[in-house]
Amino acid sequence: MRLQGKTAVITGGGGGIGRAAALLFAKEGAKLAIADVKEDFGEETVRLIREQGGQAIFIKTNVTDSKQVKKVIDAAISEFGALHILFNNAGIGNPEVKSTDLPEEEWDRIVDINLKGVFLGIKHGVPELIKAGGGVIINTSSLLGLKGQKYLSAYNASKGGVILLTQNAALEYGRHNIRVNAVAPGVIDTSIIDNWKNNGRKWPIISTANALGRIGKPEEVARAVLFLASDEASFITGATLSVDGGGLIF
What we know:
Blueprint: E1 7-11, H1 16-27, E2 31-36, H2 39-51, E3 55-60, H3 66-80, E4 85-88, H4 104-131, E5 135-140, H5 153-173, E6 178-185, H6 194-197, H7 203-206, H8 218-229, E7 240-243
Parallel strand pairs: 1-2, 1-4, 2-3, 4-5, 5-6, 6-7
């Protein structure tokens, strides 16, 4: 098993890509601390992990709160002894409006969750990874962190920021045996695309706007995250792995 003996923290682990990664990590031997702002969703992920014979705990976490982010990392160490993998995955979407029509408080909310949340994970996770002799951080960016799309200014900006923050951390902590990479999913079948699904005009276009002509599954992103978390990616750091069905080149 590729993650045997490892402890991982996954933010946004209550559903979608986070849950898929948590279940896959557990199958590969990792012990999990699941962080999510939605308690019932996070507890359900823990239940599913335990049903398949894995070990996991849940800590309700708002990733914009520094104390709460530190709390989930401390809980993982208290329960399982060390931190080896941090998957900064929590994120939200953007109301589709022109930049000038986006309320400032909405901009702040999106950037705080999508970008500051990653920063806080790095801030509190890196010292513990150093104590463990090194480890891995994976951050969730997006296809829309690599290219712009109208009416999604806050989301674009926050996810683009994740990519550069990933590179920054990789440069700063590589000598501590810490690898830092990002994944950039395209249109994936999670709750973040529900509004698109309900739009009869846009959905037929959005759902096929890539080289493969279909949307992705959370499990397909989770397998990329597992690869980056494993020793199979031992010489990969500062990279952004697109998992978008060819959306970037479409």
